[in-house]
Design a protein that fits this description.
single chain, FAD/NAD(P)-binding domain, 4 domains, 20 helices, 26% helix, globular
C-alpha cells in the first residue's frame, strides 16, 4: 500500500509538472506573432515562447548593416487597404489600423530598428500571450489516444520547466549560420560577427564567400574603401528582377555588379566552396588554393613548401593574397532541439536548410506540428514570397483556418453569392486581393458551384498544394464543380538566364492572353475536385493539374484588370461557356421582353426582375441605355393609333446577338401562361 501511494504521488507530481496549452508557438518573430494574433482573435488557449527579452530578436542584429530590403510604399494612389498591402511588405495582418508599418517608417527600404519597434508594439498593443526569456531546448512526443493528433508535444525550457500542448507551431525561422568547412576555414570571418565599420577595411583586399543579399550587402558597405572585392559561390548570380523571386539579389545591393562589369577591379567567380583551401602566410595574408593540392602535403611546414595554383597556372584568378575572407552563406533551420520521434528531417537539395513539410505546412513526420514563417519556405522556395513577411502573413492565416476546421469544427470562411455576381466577384478579388498577389502560384481563391449553377460559395486564399483535400481541410463541399483563381507569371519568363527587358515582352491583346509574361490572373475550371494522383502527375511548373478549361486574363501594365473589353468581357464569356448560362445584366424592360420570348430567363432576370428586385430606373439611366443601343427611345413615338410599335426589332437583335435562343410564338406563350 505504501509503494502504491508513493507511486501515485510521483505520478501526480509528474503530471502537474507540465503546464498545458492547446497551442504552443516557438518563436516570437513575425510569423509567431501573426499566429498568436489569429489564435487570440479566435479565443484559443495558446502561449508563445521567446528565448529573448523582446519579440523579433533576429531583427535586433540582422541585417548587419540595418537596411531592410522589404519595400514600404507610402503611396499607391488607392485608399483600399487590401490593395495597399500589395505594396506594404512589412505589416502583419490585424484589425488595428495603428499597426501598419508605414506609421513606423517613411523609408522605402526601412531601417531594421523600425521593425524591432513595430514587433514590440504589435505584441504589446494586441496583448499577445508571449513568454519571454524562455528558450525551448528540447521537444518530444507523448503518445496518447485521447489527444487531438494521437499524441501530445512535450517541451522543456532552459530552466527545466516542462510544457505540454496538443498542437505545436514552429516559428523560429532560420537563424543558424550556414558554415562550409574546408582546410583553412578557421581564418574565415562570419557575417554574424564581421565588423560593419567601413574604415576597418580601408586599403584591404577582401574575398566574400556567397552570392546572396547578405554577401552583396556586405560588399556594398565596403565597396568604396577596399582595394578590391572578389566574390565566389558555386552558382551564378541570380537577379530578382529576372527570376521574379524576392529572395534573389535585389537592385539595392548590387553595386558590385557595376564595378565588376565596368572594369573597376572587383569581380565574381564561380566554384565549389568545399574544394577551396586557405593558407595564411607569415605576414597574415590569406592565399586561396585548392583542397587537392594539400591532400598529400604537410601544411605545417609553411606556405613556401606548398604548391599553389599560380605555381602551375600563372594567371590563376585568385592568385593575389587577401587580407580578409568573409562568409556570407545564409542560414539554416535549427534541428537540434527536436527529438528523433518527431521526424523533423531536413529537405533535399537546395531545400536542405528547411524542414520537410507538406503543402499544408504540416510536418511530414508528425501530425499536428506546423512550420510557419521563413522556415516553411520549402513549399515555395525560389517561386513565391512564403519566406518573407509579405508572404507568410497569409500562409500563417491559412494554417490557422486549417486548424480551426480540424480541431474546432469551424469551416473555412466563405461567402455565398448568386451566380449573377460571379464575374464581379472574380474581378474584385484579382484587382485588390493581396494574398493572391504576393503568394502567386501558391494561394488561390476557390469558387464552389452550387447545384444547377444558381449560386456559388467563395473561399479566399486556400493553399493549392492541398486542393485534392479541400473538402476535408475546409469543411466545404465541392460536388458541382469549381473554379480556382490564381496569379501566375508566364511559363518561360522567369529565370537567372532570362532577358526580361526584351522588346515586345508584354502582351496586350485579349486573344493572346495565354502568352502573358507578367503577373496576371488565371482561372482554372474543374468539373470535379482533382485527385491526389492528378496533383502529383501535373505538368512540370504547373501549380495545378490540367483543368477542364482554363482562362488567362491578359496582363496589364497598371495591374488593373477592369477594362470592359480586354478583361471583363473575355472572362464573362469564359464563365458562360463553362456553366452554359448567360451571366449578363439586363434592364427591367429587357427581362420583361425575355419573359415572353424565351423558354428560360437569364439568371439575372430570374434572380432579380421576377422577384421584383433590380436597379431602380431613372431618366439619366434611360438616356444612357438608349445612347448605348440597349433600349429603344419611345418618348417620341406616337401610340395614339391601335397599331403597337414594331421598332423594338433592332433592340431585340442587339440583346440577343451573343446568344442564339429559340423564340416561341408570342401567342403560344400567352396561352401557356393563361393555362
Amino acid at each position: 500500500l505504501g509503494l502504491a501511494l508513493y507511486a501515485g504521488s510521483l505520478y501526480a507530481a509528474s503530471s502537474t509538472a507540465f503546464l498545458y496549452h492547446d497551442y504552443c508557438i516557438i518563436g516570437a518573430g513575425p510569423s509567431g506573432l501573426q499566429a498568436a494574433y489569429f489564435l487570440q482573435r479566435a479565443s484559443r488557449d495558446y502561449v508563445v515562447f521567446e528565448r529573448s527579452h523582446a519579440p523579433g530578436s533576429f531583427f535586433a542584429l540582422y541585417p548587419r548593416h540595418r537596411k531592410l530590403i522589404s519595400i514600404n510604399k507610402q503611396y499607391t494612389g488607392k485608399s483600399n487597404s487590401e490593395f495597399n498591402l500589395r505594396h506594404d511588405w512589412n505589416s502583419l495582418l490585424s484589425h488595428d489600423r495603428r499597426l501598419l508599418f508605414r506609421r513606423y517608417s517613411r523609408d522605402f527600404f526601412p531601417h531594421a530598428d523600425a521593425m524591432v519597434h513595430y514587433l514590440e508594439d504589435f505584441a504589446s498593443l494586441l496583448k499577445l500571450r508571449v513568454q519571454y526569456n524562455t528558450a525551448i531546448i528540447h521537444v518530444t512526443l507523448e503518445r496518447d489516444a485521447q489527444a487531438w493528433n494521437g499524441h501530445y508535444f512535450l517541451l522543456t525550457d532552459q530552466d527545466r520547466q516542462n510544457y505540454k500542448c496538443s498542437s505545436l507551431l514552429v516559428a523560429t525561422g532560420t537563424w543558424v549560420p550556414n558554415v562550409v568547412n574546408f582546410p583553412g576555414s578557421e581564418h574565415v570571418e562570419g557575417y554574424e560577427t564581421v565588423s560593419i565599420n567601413p574604415e576597418d577595411f580601408a586599403g584591404q583586399t577582401v574575398l566574400i564567400l556567397g552570392r546572396g543579399n547578405s554577401a552583396f550587402e556586405t560588399a556594398e558597405n565596403i565597396l568604396g574603401v577596399t582595394n578590391f572585392i572578389h566574390m565566389v559561390s558555386r552558382s551564378r548570380v541570380r537577379l530578382s528582377w529576372a527570376t521574379h523571386y524576392v529572395g534573389d539579389l535585389r537592385a539595392i545591393n548590387n553595386g558590385l555588379l557595376d564595378t565588376y562589369q565596368l572594369k573597376s577591379l572587383d569581380g565574381l567567380l564561380e566554384g565549389d566552396l568545399e574544394d577551396l583551401a586557405i593558407i595564411k602566410d607569415k605576414k597574415g595574408k590569406l592565399h586561396i588554393t585548392l583542397r587537392f593540392y594539400l591532400e598529400s602535403r604537410n601544411t605545417s611546414a609553411g606556405i613556401d613548401s606548398i604548391t599553389l595554383p599560380q605555381d602551375e597556372l600563372d594567371n590563376f584568378a585568385t592568385r593575389a593574397p587577401y587580407d580578409r575572407v568573409i562568409r556570407c552563406l545564409g542560414w539554416n533551420f535549427d534541428f537540434s532541439i527536436y527529438n528523433r520521434s518527431l521526424g523533423m528531417m531536413p529537405g533535399k537539395g537546395n531545400k536542405k536548410k528547411y524542414p520537410q513539410i507538406k503543402p499544408s505546412y504540416e510536418s511530414r513526420g508528425t501530425r499536428g506540428l506546423f512550420v510557419l514563417g521563413t522556415a516553411s519556405h520549402s513549399v515555395d522556395f525560389r517561386k513565391s514570397a512564403g519566406g518573407f513577411i509579405h508572404g507568410f502573413r497569409y500562409t500563417t492565416r491559412a494554417v490557422h483556418r486549417l486548424l480551426e476546421n480540424r480541431h474546432h469544427g469551424v469551416p473555412w470562411p466563405s461567402t455565398v453569392y448568386p451566380i449573377t455576381q460571379l464575374t464581379n466577384s472574380i474581378i474584385k478579388r484579382v484587382n485588390e486581393a493581396s494574398g493572391l498577389y504576393q503568394m502567386f502560384s501558391v494561394l488561390a481563391d476557390i469558387i464552389l458551384l452550387r447545384e444547377n449553377a444558381t449560386a456559388f460559395e467563395y473561399l479566399e486564399e486556400y493553399p493549392v498544394g492541398v486542393l485534392p483535400e479541400l473538402e476535408m481541410q475546409t469543411g466545404r463541399k465541392a460536388r458541382n464543380g469549381l473554379f480556382v483563381i490564381i496569379m501566375e507569371y508566364g511559363r518561360n519568363f522567369s529565370g537567372a538566364d532570362k532577358d526580361v527587358f526584351y522588346y515586345n515582352r508584354a502582351v496586350g491583346e485579349a486573344q493572346h492572353a495565354w502568352q502573358s509574361n507578367f503577373l496576371h490572373p488565371v482561372i482554372y475550371y474543374y468539373k470535379r475536385l482533382p485527385t491526389e494522383r492528378e496533383m502529383k502527375l501535373r505538368p512540370p511548373d504547373w501549380p495545378l493539374p490540367r483543368p477542364d478549361a482554363v482562362h488567362h486574363i491578359v496582363e496589364d501594365f497598371l495591374t488593373d484588370w477592369t477594362a470592359p473589353n480586354a478583361h471583363i468581357l473575355p472572362l464573362r464569356r469564359f464563365l458562360e461557356n463553362c456553366l452554359s448560362t448567360d451571366l449578363r445584366n439586363f434592364f427591367a424592360e429587357s427581362c420583361f421582353l425575355f419573359a415572353f420570348t424565351r423558354q428560360k430567363l437569364p439568371p439575372f432576370c430570374r434572380q432579380g426582375y421576377v422577384r421584383m428586385q433590380g436597379l431602380l430606373g431613372s431618366q439619366g439611366l434611360q438616356h444612357h441605355a438608349v445612347a448605348a443601343g440597349l433600349l429603344e427611345d419611345y418618348t417620341l413615338t406616337d401610340f395614339s393609333g391601335d397599331r403597337p410599335p414594331d421598332s423594338r426589332d433592332g433592340s431585340e437583335d442587339q440583346l440577343l446577338r451573343d446568344h442564339v435562343i429559340p423564340v416561341r410564338p408570342l401567342q403560344h406563350l400567352v396561352n401557356a401562361k393563361d393555362e
